[in-house]
Specification:
178 residues, alpha+beta, OB fold (Dihydrolipoamide Acetyltransferase, E2P), 4-stranded antiparallel β-sheet, 37% helix, rod-shaped
Length: 178
């Protein structure tokens, strides 16, 4: 039973191989011959190539001189702002003015602290880098346009390599039924 299946697979393989060979013109009715090359011109194509490069630069970075970050300017600004806001209005209006004064005073205190810190900061330079595309074009050999002659007739083809003085061609003889 196993031997029969193996034999069947071998036979099917030979039949398929014979069909493929016949489909591509590899029959007993074809011959390989050398035909003289009349001309062979190289064909070039332009290709775009990207060689990314790293681009670096020095960037100034502001660094505070001391690491202590006091909240005193914001707190003092809020107290003064609340006191000023309390001077306006009465009842609920006075409460709203007090809160608004505290918020505005805290904001002014923060702005003053930042202005002071900027004046007292030092500058350090850090290297920053990024990859940048660098495209260029090149001419690359794409093959050869070949003109050859066989049996008094001129033919043209495109090959990957220079064929030299002759080119190998397959000549097939297939009978035509009338």
């Amino acid at each position: 039973m196993i031997a029969d299946k193996l034999l069947l697979r071998i036979i099917v393989g030979f039949v398929v191989a014979a069909g493929v060979i016949n489909a591509y013109g590899y029959t007993s009715n074809s011959n390989l011959v050398e035909a003289p090359v009349v001309s062979a011109y190289p064909v070039y194509k332009t290709v775009e190539i990207n060689n990314p490069v790293q681009q670096c630069w020095e960037e100034a970075v502001s660094v505070p001189r001391n690491s202590y970050r006091s909240r005193t300017p914001e707190i003092l600004g809020a107290i003064v702002g609340a006191g000023v806001g309390r001077l306006f209005g009465s009842g609920r209006g006075q409460d709203v003015a007090t809160v608004a004064g505290a918020v505005l005073g805290g904001s002014i205190g923060r702005d003053q602290k930042n202005k002071y810190n900027q004046k007292n900061a030092s500058v350090r330079y850090e290297e920053r880098c990024r990859m940048v595309d660098n495209f260029h074009h090149e001419e690359r050999l794409d093959g050869y346009d070949v003109t050859y002659e066989y049996d008094g007739t001129t033919y043209r083809t495109h090959t990957r390599s220079d064929p030299g003085q002759t080119i190998t061609v397959r000549i097939s003889v297939i009978p035509v039924e009338t």
